[in-house]
Amino acid sequence: MANPVAAPATVLGTTALFFTGSLVMRGAGCTINDLWDRNLDPHVERTRLRPIARRAITPQQALVFLGGQLTTGLAVLLCFPMECFWYATPSLALVTLYPLAKRVTYYPQIVLGFTFSWGAIIGFPAMGVELLANQAALTAAACLYASNIAWTVLYDMIYAHMDIKDDAKAGIKSIALKHEKETKKVLSGLAIVQLGLLSATGVAAGLGPVFFVGSVGGAALTLGTM
Predict the structure, then answer these.
(1) Prediction pTM value
(2) Smaller CB count within 10 Å for the chain: N or C?
């Protein structure tokens, strides 16, 4: 795992594809979320001016736009090795179901983490690493995925505090509501978990000082300034 598996140009090209795919599918996730929440968003100050909530566009128009986003996302996905298609497909269920989580659990941020972090898994086959045939790679991918989940829950818990009063009135659940009085403790715990798992990723992959200083150190610096 420590040896390079691709030329720098290939890494840059793959990174560009990931950036494009992430941008498009993040947008698709927002469209799906806005469709599900079109009757909730008008009751929350931060979301009441979203296009569907304020009726600037109809749900039918949003569905057409979503179709374009998903088609573009599929086009990007097909630029990767075919293995990536099979690894990526399950994430569509998470993208679709995440908006429902806030209606049934106080921990929708965990579902969001599962969704947003999926690229940590796809990155390995995208670079020609077969996860099921490489135990070190599988361990590294699992640690990186879990680290990203912790990070997503952490920042979205902070984000959820913006809506905490409106969410309570509208019946929307969030980790911020559930642990409002223990926020700092929960965030600190998540930060420790994130950094620990990110470090474990480097160990499993046999990475060197650049990763630990740049990625782990950079993450620690970011968390320390939040």
Answers:
(1) 0.89
(2) C
